Amino acid sequence: MMFWHVNRSMSVRQRRCSAAEIGVVENGNGRAWPAGEVLVAAVPRPDTTYYVLAIPQAALGGEVLTSFLSQVAPFGCPVPGSLIRAYSLPDAPFPSVLLKEHEDGSDGIGDAYRRFLAAARRPWIAALDETGPGLSPTLVWEARATRRLLGPEEVAGVAAEAGLAPAGVVDGYLGRGLLLLAQPTLAESWQTMMSLGGPTKIRKITGREFPVWVDLPAHQPSLVSSPILGTVESLL
What we know:
globular, two-stranded antiparallel sheet, 9 helices, 7-stranded mixed beta sheet
């Protein structure tokens, strides 16, 4: 028997459920979502509606975070210290991914790089180093004629309005990772070895590069096609 908690305060519709109840087959493909109750919510606006899918009790840090990344990045994930070093250097926060001069990388790479630097780099370092809160996987999208996944600078505000109250820092990159865990075929057409801007060499995409890779414009149509999004919308 399924039990739903429904909250319609301030017009926000909210439900708590298990992953199976939104169509996620646990370990069905050898990949498991983080433990915890799933929260789904709808936040209506005058001209649109935002939807939230999250695991508020999850707060991934250290090796738990890199274990998650190893499941969603094509070539696994280095140890936490490797990511911390890559993200920490002040003159080149992404030395193993993009050098600073590649902020203007084509095909949306430069924009994806800048979004990570501005909104997520420091929380990721703190989570990896376990000197701060872990990251809570959170996916937020806008439902129009064409769905749009919200960027990292937008996710926290809508999540708070939905009453998320996460155990860690709301993180949209891991939210997108939830979709890949549930349905790895979403990324089957994505390049797994690529240059991430300018003259940088072709590299394998690992958990270190995952935030830029999963945020590239070319990959968004695949993500928004996930049947999980439609299931959440129909439930709310």
